[in-house]
Recover the amino acids of this structure.
């Protein structure tokens, strides 16, 4: 059987030898993880306080950059473990969506796959590590059209979160309602 050739007469192997993988600008790929604990009617969300620029000191979802050769759901599980000490297998994460709004990260073109996991609050104890300066559970309160996150003396609304995590958390809470 003869090899398939393109309109230029090249086989796939010949085409790939001359292909310039730098011809197209590539985004950085990241994963963000929305962890929600549910007990009775109480819902809490796990947030980390960023220990590095950009958004230094702001509260955010755990997450970070994908490594070469890593599936994006593996990135999510790894980053969650590195930043909070919580281990959730990649197969237990639910995809919330893909986030690619230009300017979502001041470091440059970044596309994120966001995931959701629901956990038993008695079985997971977050510990801030890696580039997270703090990690903690925030009660989720829905008041009219506003979502409020409260942790002892800290009170946040969606717009207070770093990057575009307000969009991700809003979408994750809608996914949670369907689960």
């Amino acid at each position: 059987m003869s090899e398939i050739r393109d309109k230029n007469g090249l086989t796939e192997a010949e085409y790939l030898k001359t292909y310039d993988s730098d011809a197209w600008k590539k985004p950085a790929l990241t994963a963000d993880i929305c962890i929600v604990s549910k007990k009775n009617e109480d819902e809490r969300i796990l947030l980390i306080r960023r220990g590095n620029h950009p958004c230094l000191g702001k509260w955010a979802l755990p997450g970070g950059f994908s490594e070469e050769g890593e599936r994006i759901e593996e990135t999510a599980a790894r980053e969650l473990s590195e930043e909070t000490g919580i281990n959730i297998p990649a197969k237990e994460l639910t995809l919330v969506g893909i986030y690619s709004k230009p300017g979502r990260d001041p470091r440059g073109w970044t596309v994120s796959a966001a995931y959701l996991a629901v956990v038993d609050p008695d079985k997971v104890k977050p510990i801030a590590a890696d580039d997270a300066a703090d990690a903690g559970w925030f009660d989720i309160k829905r008041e009219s059209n506003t979502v409020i996150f409260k942790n002892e003396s800290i009170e946040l609304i969606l717009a207070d979160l770093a990057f575009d995590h307000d969009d991700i958390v809003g979408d994750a809470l809608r996914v949670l309602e369907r689960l």
Remarks:
- Residues 35-178 form a domain with the Nucleoside Triphosphate Pyrophosphohydrolase fold (CATH 3.90.79.10).
- The longest helix spans residues 165-178.
